Amino acid sequence: MFLRFFKSTFLFLLITVTACGNTTTEKTPDKDPAEKTPSEAPAIVTGAERLSAYLPLLKGKNVGVIGNQTSVISTEKGRVHLIDTLLALDVQVKKAFAPEHGFRGTADAGEVVKDGKDPKTELPVLSLYGSNKKPSAEQLKGLDILIFDIQDVGARFYTYISTLHYVMEAAAENDIPILVLDRPNPNGHYIDGPILEPDHKSFVGMHTVPVVHGLTMGEYAQMINGEKWLENGIQADLRVIKMENYDHGTQYDLPVKPSPNLPNAQAINLYPSLCFFEGTNVNAGRGTSKQFQVFGSPFLPEDKYSFSYTPQSNEGAKSPKHLGEKCFGKDLSNHPKLDKLSLEWLISAYKNTDDQKEFFNSFFTKLAGSNKLQKQIEAGMSAEEIRQSWQSGLEEFAIVREKYLLYE
Fold this sequence. Notes:
Elements: H1 2-18, H2 51-58, E1 62-67, E2 72-75, E3 78-81, H3 82-88, E4 92-98, E5 116-117, E6 124-127, H4 137-140, E7 145-149, H5 160-173, E8 178-181, E9 192-195, E10 210-212, H6 217-226, E11 238-241, H7 265-274, E12 294-297, E13 307-309, E14 327-331, H8 344-352, H9 363-368, H10 372-378, H11 383-388, H12 391-402
Helix pairs in contact: 5-6
């Protein structure tokens, strides 16, 4: 009796919170969004929160969920994980799949994630960042439908879109439909950066898109399908559960950090620009409390870089670059919000490093998606000259992107 009461109460709370996203009404003209105050803007309703839009699709189905710590639903009682929500509503969730950083989001970048069990629900958790990045037919056995619900940050080298690709491919190969529960892109207000070249495809860059693609996860899934990027041009049986009250100009601060080294909105905004340092001898704040908000290196001159810090082992960075060494660099934690990639910090660090031959490593080309950017910096080109070389590619991408937009 108590369990029945709990489930009924839980469902009532969730439907109460998400009801605004469950009906379609004609939009009335709005004033310029730039003139809105935050209190005037209606709350975003994520795809996961629009329960009535997808619960009927799960009835009588064995469900697999690809998610992590960001897969949450906001209720009057606080944030509830999607899996806890579905189980409380008698949805037959059979398996969970974990991307980079793990199901609860605590593993280091690049750290192998092992299969295991979710300690709260006892569900088996199968790794998509260990021996295989694509779900196998055996892992998908017995499942009737897949749900993908992971918060993205809108950068090509953020690996959750690569996981999305492989999940869609496996779903298509095994005739399993897939639902993508859409979430805002905090860097969805612009597109920028070099376009990936196919010769430099890797898990940190699988598709011919710019570094900042300006798409939500649902829109990106539609592009993967529409452009036939899956193996042999196959297409997934895809359905996107759209958000309510969202457009690409909407400011969105994530309620849960998407990975251990992106702790806040400032880090997420700077990430597309500072992540290039991961392919150099410069530390991008890993091993500090200001990940992707500072950068520094023992090889930068103290007279030109007065800010300093010493990386230490911490959650998400057990062995950060230059562990225990004093690094000189810049603190960008109060820098104004960017609406384009910044190359100035990267170029300046290269020019001022002790030994320029040791500045770049092989990972840089994977991050850039091309070997051109490194050559341009080494040749002494300015940030503006480099940016100009991207423009034709960005214009072509913008035309393709337009076909898959779900929001203004």
